[in-house]
Specification:
OB fold (Dihydrolipoamide Acetyltransferase, E2P); 27% helix; alpha+beta; 4 helices
Length: 124
């Protein structure tokens, strides 16, 4: 049976982020948490699935780095997307401008860098 809720540290592990990042996301309103009777953060499985973008799991790539878009720079047909995946690591991907528009990528939105071989894809 699947777990219904996760502790903050379990949720951070499931999202591939640090506990400090999860706490910061909570303060910034980027993740929905509730508090248990002992005032500890608890994250629902549904919220973790939302942030992980489970509907995109059809991709065969195994290396996924969930994070937050730090910047998007569009020039002509291409765009440069910087994603902060864990402090202080950032991944930069060159994608088409159409992909940026289709995914709704902008500063502050959650996104996942998907690494396969020498290519980095972005999903949201």
């Amino acid at each position: 049976m699947a777990q219904a809720t996760y502790t903050a540290s379990e949720a951070a592990r499931a999202l591939g982020i640090s506990l400090d990042t999860l706490r910061r996301w909570d303060r910034q309103g980027r993740i929905r948490v509730r508090r248990d009777a002992a005032n500890r953060r608890v994250v629902s499985a549904k919220e973790i699935e939302r942030l992980r973008g489970r509907e995109h799991q059809a991709l065969s790539a195994r290396n996924r780095f969930p994070g937050v878009v730090q910047s998007v720079r569009v020039e002509g047909l291409l765009a440069q997307v910087q994603i902060a995946v864990t402090e202080p690591v950032e991944i930069t991907a060159i994608v088409t401008a159409d992909a940026v528009a289709e995914l709704g990528l902008e500063r502050g939105v959650p996104a996942t860098a998907v690494v396969k071989s020498t290519s980095i894809m972005v999903e949201r």
